[in-house]
Amino acid sequence: MMELGLAAAAGEVAAPLTLLTILVGVFVGIIAGAIPGFTFTMALVLAFPFTFAMGPVQGLALMIGIYIGGLSGGLIAGILLGIPGTPSSVVTIYDGYPMAKAGEPARALGIGIASSVIGTLIGAAVLFLVGPIIGRFTLNFGPWEIFSLVLFALTLVAGLSGKHLVKGLIAACLGLLISTIGVAPAGQMRFNFDNPQLSGGLSAIPVLIGLFAVSQLLVNVEESRLDARPSSGASAPRIRVPYGQVLRDMWREKRNAVRSSMVGTFIGTLPAAGAESANFISYDRAKKAEKRDPENYGKGHPGGIVASETSNNAVAGGAFIPTITLGIPGDVAQAVMMGALILHGIAPGPGLFERQPVLVNSIYLSIVVAALCVLVVQTLLLPFLARVTLVPKAILVPCILLLTAVGSFAMNNRIFDIWVVVVFGIIGYLLVKLSVPLGPMILGLILGATLEEELLRALQLSDSLSTFVTRPISLTFLVLAVGSIGFSLYKVNRARKAPREAKASVTV
Amino acid sequence: MKKNSHLIIGTLAIGALALSSCGDSAEAGAAEEGFPTAPVEMVIPYPPGGGSDVLFRLMAEYAEDHLGQNIVPINVEGASATVGSRQVKDSQADGYTILGTHQVTAAAFHTNIVDYGFDAFAPIALGTATPHLPSVSSDFAEEHGIEDLEGFLDHVEANPGEVTWAFTTGSEDHYTIAAILDAAGIDPTSLNYVNYNGTGPQYAALISGEVDGMTGDYASGEGYIEDGSMLPLGVVNDERDPQLPDLPTVSEQGIDFTLTVDRGFLAPEGTPAEHIEVLQDAFEAAFEDEEFQDRVEELGSYPNFMNSEDYQSHIDELDSSMEQLADQMQEF
């Protein structure tokens, strides 16, 4: 039955028109993902009406192309400009941007592209092989488990803060505080200061774009003022792609790639866990597992790019698991794809697998084809993309500022969001000047709402707090959280005892 | 010199363009019968991909052929659908910004999430009706020997505060279950309400056994009903659902309450009546299209067109009955 479905699905996906649809989708997705402020979710919504006229397989193929392309496209701006397009590419810039700045943009992009393709394929393989089993297993994740997982993810702040642990904690708390603006989970209005625009809270994207993009651009302007020489001076970046070097980097990070893909896939599976946090967790794991040169993480270590980009692409395979096996979309992108299915009269749900074997198999195949398209399209684009680093800042900065403003507006069609970008741009710039790391702030912002909602839900279900420690999975995450804090304290103590070295620090 | 003359020509050309476009908009303002001369923006106060989103987009798609202008759907989500409704309420009352909504506009008002309800808007037309399906998980039903709505209500009455029910604060599903309990003479606060964002997470909670029941609908719940993990207790409608012919309505089971999720369109208060009429006629024409009707039914809803006037009285009725339950919907 399954082989039959697979063969029929292969026939449908391999049709020239479907292949072309995926390729177009991937291209659109990469562009949407690459422009800071635009997201592939927006591209998916825009493509939605086009699927009305297509068959279900072709319509899904278009959506999957955009989805996979978009997940990967975020690395471009992150590596070249130090601006993450989405929360899921925040940690890509930790090592990608320093490497590009050090004159190796093409190598960083190459590692990023290879990683995102590997992540997508491993995610798809997990989805195909054990999707239904994982789907059933994730039902064990009630509000207690998700709360504990999110709490664990928040303890990673320490690993993201570099040498400024206290400042990192302050940033994380600021992020959590921002997440409380707007309607509380139980319906009360908070911190809206009688401004109706604030009643819906601040969306993560405009805050992210302000904090990272605008502040980064302000720093760029400052640097170009100080440094009057044209950027293509003595240390011209190498824009020729060092394919051999990229392959060696990937081979060296093979364990990291597999582990990060697994983390990404699994977190992608959990509805509402905030798949954006997968790259933070993978990055932290990779850094702790690195034996040879962990101190180079944050300064342009290939492993940092690999961890982030494999895991944020593997999220795709994971996110499809609850959609296909349970009919529950884990994120907005999945919800849009499910909407397309419903419009074609296909009800997603636990029986989808039995009722529509061809369709489900064509989803797997479309993901694989999309991954290959990402590889081809981005590799072809790579030499041109790397040249972006040669563009003078005076031209580049205003162009990107304009794009970020348009993108943030298009998110919710509110002028207010452009003001959010501006205000957080200034805040971000000041924080960078004070060496406050921005990563923890974003982590706090994207996880704060989930943390609170799950806590409320857990307490609505049972008044007792002890449930958090009597459920084994929840307990496991709590133990991990305590261990993570202990490990950080131990490291801080050891660093304090060690003689103080040069105060070179990296904060992005 | 040559450069200069280019500059002058260019400036003149741009000036002429600007002037001509000014002329267009001035003309549009003067000639009322010209409405609409630009695309109409339709705010959907929910994230993309959900039941409301899909239905509103479908209605827009078919109505724009009759309107002669595009209807551009825009998702403005958040705060129990009030971020979007507020945006429309505060926009210019010219018919170029409309809201797709349902009872949530009244529910958010009566649960004090916002200080305005339907009265801040001028109704354009009602589009579709979707019956609610209050349902429990099959495991829960088996454990307590519950087979129908009556059995469920007896169980709730005998065990107040024990049965957990997934809902979204200040949304229409909250009102439906509260009204059913009230009609049965049971205190609506006897259920242990658990808050979820939208129906997707509610289904996840139901089939994992995290909660005992929820209020769904056929389109989103079909998969779980078929696979036997969810037991619908009754249809909240005047008639049985053709897709579930064996499932009695709640009124057949002695509960005097009917309420469908009624999705319609609103314009800001003060929108010229002529513009409302143009929009209303476009939706009416769409609803005469049989292909469109079939697609709505495929989505588990019914075409239920009402013109502006009928929609207004429909809203008034809803508002007064919801007001009676407002107090009990706030204490939990």
From TrEMBL, chain A:
Record bears the keyword Protein transport: no
Signal peptide start-end: none
Keywords: Membrane, Transmembrane, Transmembrane helix
Coiled coil: none
Keyword Transmembrane helix listed: yes
Domain DUF112 as annotated: residue spans: 19-443
Protein name per the record: Putative tricarboxylic transport membrane protein
From TrEMBL, chain B:
Name of protein: Tripartite-type tricarboxylate transporter receptor subunit TctC
Cross-referenced Pfam families: TctC (PF03401)
Species this protein is from: Nesterenkonia sandarakina
Keywords assigned by UniProt, alphabetized: Receptor, Signal
Signal peptide: 1-30
Keyword match Membrane: no
Family: Belongs to the UPF0065 (bug) family.
Gene3D superfamilies: Bordetella uptake gene, domain 1 (3.40.190.150), Periplasmic binding protein-like II (3.40.190.10)
